[in-house]
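User: Hey, my collaborator sent me this sequence without any context and asked if I could get a structure. I don't really work with proteins. Can you help?
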Amino acid sequence: MNSLPNLGSKPLVTGSRNYEDPVQSPLKLGFFIQPVHPLFRRYGDVLREDREAVVLADRLGYREAFIGEHLMDSAETITSCLAFIASLAEACPSITFGTGVLPLANYHPAMAAAQVAMVDHLVQGRLILGVGPGVPGDAEAIGDLGSDRNRKTQEALDHMCRIWSEAPPYRIAGEFYRTTTERALDASIGVGVAVRPLQQPHPPIAITSIRPDSRGPYAAGARGWTGISASYVGAYVVRAQIQSYLEGRRSAGLSADPSGWRVARSVCVADDEATARRYARRADGAHGFYFHVMKTKLAKAGALDVMRDFPGQPESELTPQRCLERLVIAGTPQSVADQILAFRQEVGAFGTLLYTGHDWADPALARRSMELMAHEVWPRINQGGPGAPA
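Assistant: No problem. I've predicted the 3D structure and written it out in structure-token form, which is a compact way to encode the shape of the chain:
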């Protein structure tokens, strides 16, 4: 995940069985998959597994599924989030998909606008357009490492919105991109005329964020967009992002409604505490590999501090084992519900928790965790009876 810029808390505590969530609005349950798989696995196998995970989320009643994208990464192996979403259009009739994110700096805006519009129709308007600048490895691969990819992303999005709203021929020029159909236009046969999304004027826009001081959440709030806190950031980062998002909404005269903010978390639910903790906290397990990858990438970017729960947290809290203990919510359904409610009180109200999909090191336990999350954890969180999540 990466943010789109310019668009002192306590450590996390666990709650008790009688914990009372101060937020009145129901918390929604969604799904997020980057994903991160061990390098030894066959590519076709992990793609099938990732599709199966999203199909399961749809059947269990998860409200949203955000899909990541990386061009040059043999661990994070979905190279086109839009193609992946399109492949699930018929298999998932209920869930709302999100690009998590579409790295607009990797695309010409005319290409991105056309592909987003097509996928929005394929999924019958169940699409959220998550955008960001992409990661350095992909930028280097396409010869774009030296550009200002944040400005490039903003310009690409502006051009896409104009393509979707203006009449042809298009005459759109900026610092990085130029889109025109003046010479080719023949409206009588459709040439030079862009297709438009099903959702008008465009799908809802979301950004992702990993830093506590990013301007992305503020800009998202001010523009009426939504946003996502990454699954590997600590509590103080999430709190700062939510507060910035609300400040942005207030600055634009919008209500201070936190329901548009999502928080991704790594969660493991099992029928007994020992099984959950053993599966979630093994250094050589799925979660262990995920946090090893994320920690390595953040360290190279000079952003390791975002994994802390509060500024100045000791270095000992950043060991692989402590990251698993602090940043993975694991336990029985009641224990997990308590931990989520306690986390929500600490960071502030938000609208959706995105269950982060990991490699299915043990497929039976991985599926069971998703099932328990929907049918046992969520009714406890929203104080309802057994059934699908809110």
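In plain terms: The first strand starts at residue 28 and ends at 33. You can pass these tokens on to your collaborator as they are.
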